[in-house]
Every structure is written in structure tokens, then in C-alpha cells.
Amino acid sequence: MLVFLTFWTLIGITVSDRLRSGILAQKSRFDWIIDTIGLLIQGFLIPAIQIVVLNRFCSYLMPQAAGCLTLNPVLAFGLSFIAVDYLYYWNHRGLHSKWLWRSHLVHHTVTQMDVLGTSRNTIWTSFVIVYVWVHGLFIYLLSDPSWYILGVSLTSALDLWRHSGLWVSERSHIYRIISLILILPQDHAWHHAAEITNCNYGANFKLWDVIHQTYYSASEFPERLGVESNLSLMRRLFLP
């Protein structure tokens, strides 16, 4: 519910703002198709796989392990929101390696930050992201996965916001608090910059980028976003 509420709130803000609604109007037909397919995959297909397919697969391999893990709610939340976030940092860096970059390139064809581009990927790239498999496993193992799922939902909501282009004013009080901790839309915009893409890999926390010296900060917005690509629609969907 949190994810859907965040998505439609960001869509509403985008459409109601003349400048941002103009950004949506500039999207090409290819962009609309691949963004819509990506959102359907990450919003519906992957949760269904985690809840149904992976659950049955785990019950087949480990029938005695269902609900065997009991964690304090704070630890369960921290497992998904912090520990898995660190795994994703390395997963994301791996997607930028010379071996996997072509599978991730489509995501970086976004030329304007907007919430609809959050899930822009090839159809199969989503399945090499750590979230799919780790979340499915822990939902199966935890006796009460509700707090773990809350962390998953908050991560997904922040991911939508991070791609929305809705910057937090540096003069606001909330900026002074969350900018020390979270990857903000302005941070992630630099990850999508045309001139540099090897920075700000983190999803929730900028701590991982700071520790591993991949954090980049600038007060201005990148001059240009996205990498150029002349791939056909079918290659963007399947074989970049």
C-alpha cells in the first residue's frame, strides 16, 4: 500500500506541475512502452514471484524451514532496509561493470528524471537484482515477515522518489536531516548524468558510497542526463 500511495502521489505532483508534466510529454513512444512494461514487472510480476513461486520453491527445497526464523521487529526491519541495501550497493556496482553494463544500459537511457522511468530495464534485468531473490527467501524464513516487508516497501517508495526529480530544497530543515543519511533525488540524478555514471550506487543510504569512495555531490543539476542509444524497441526489451 505504501508503494502504490507513493507512486500515485508522485504521479499527481508531476502531472499538476506544468514543467514536470511537460517532461512526461517529451517521452518517446519507445520510452512509454518500456517504462510501462518495467513498472508492471516490478510492481506486479516480481511481487507475485516472490510470494507464490519462490515460496513454493523454498517449501520444496526446505519444507522444515518455513517460518523458522524469529527476529525482533527492529532487526527484521533493519535486515531489509539496511543489510539488503548494502548487498544492493554491490549488486548495483556489478551492473556497471564491463561484464554486465549492457544489461543495465537501458536504465540509463532516461534523459529526464521522472517516476515512470524508475523501472526502465530490459524485461529480464530485474531478475538479476538482489532484491528479488533475497526478499523472497526471508519472507519464507521469517515467522513474522511484516516488519521485513515494511522495510521492503519503504525502500521501494524511496526508489520511486529518488527517480522522480523532486529535489529537496537545501534551505529546508528536512534537507539538513535526511541529506546526511539518505540518497536524495539530486544525488541519484548525478548517477544518471551523461558525463558520469560511476557514482552514487546506493539505494537507501549514502553511507555505502561514502565508505567505498563512490559518493559524488554537487549543488547544481547535471547538464545532461542519460546515455545515447539507438537500440530498437525489441533490443531495449530483450537484448541490449
From TrEMBL:
Annotated Gene Ontology cellular component terms: membrane
Sequence ranges assigned to domain Fatty acid hydroxylase in this UniProt record: 79-214
Chief localization: membrane
Keyword Transmembrane helix tagged: yes
Membrane-spanning parts: 32-54, 66-89, 123-142
Record GO biological process: lipid biosynthetic process
Pfam families: FA_hydroxylase
Subcellular compartments: Membrane
Keywords: Membrane, Transmembrane, Transmembrane helix
GO molecular function: iron ion binding; oxidoreductase activity
Classification via InterPro entries: Fatty_acid_hydroxylase, Sterol_Desaturase_Related
PANTHER family from the UniProt entry: STEROL DESATURASE (PTHR11863)
Listed name of the protein: Sterol desaturase family protein
